[in-house]
Amino acid sequence: MFVWVPHVEDKAVFFNLEMNSEKVVHFYTLIPLYREELDYKVKHGEEEQLNKLNKIGVTDVLNPSRRNSCKKIFGLF
């Protein structure tokens, strides 16, 4: 899983929800990763992996049939 801050207009307001003076809830996005994507993230960093995910249109909505952003096509890429 890739843990990331959700894509929203005003992160400061959305990200922190104060329940009371002692409790604050923080919101994150979980993005399931394929093995190749996890390997890429470890090798190149989170920002590079996030860029690859953004290029193929990955959103906060879970899509079990989404494309692998790091899968080699015919061994060429």
Whole-number mean pLDDT: 85
* Helix proportion range: 25-40%
Helix/strand order, N-terminal first:
EHEEEHH
> Helix segment count?
3
Taking strands numbered 1, 2, ... along the chain, how are they ordered across the largest sheet?
A: 1-4
Query: What is the straight-line distance between the termini?
Result: 23 Å
> Which class do the helix and strand fractions yield?
alpha+beta
Work out the strand percent: 15-25%
The coarse overall form would be elongated
- Low-confidence parts: none
The total strand number stands at 4
Q: Rg to the nearest angstrom?
A: 15 Å
Largest sheet: 2 strands, antiparallel
Q: Which descriptors apply to this entry?
A:
77 residues; alpha+beta; 3 helices; single chain
Any overview of this molecule?
By secondary structure, this protein is of the alpha+beta class. It contains 3 helices and 4 strands; from the N terminus they run E-H-E-E-E-H-H. It has helices spanning 11-15, 35-44, 46-55, and strands spanning 2-4, 16-20, 23-26, 29-31. The strands form 2 sheets. A two-stranded antiparallel sheet has the order 1-4. Strand 2 and strand 3 form a beta hairpin. Helix 2 crosses helix 3. The radius of gyration is 15 Å and the shape is elongated.
Can I get a quick summary?
By secondary structure, the chain is an alpha+beta fold.
Sequence-ordered SSE layout with sheet pairings:
Elements: E1 2-4, H1 11-15, E2 16-20, E3 23-26, E4 29-31, H2 35-44, H3 46-55
Antiparallel strand pairs: 1-4, 2-3
Helix pairs in contact: 2-3
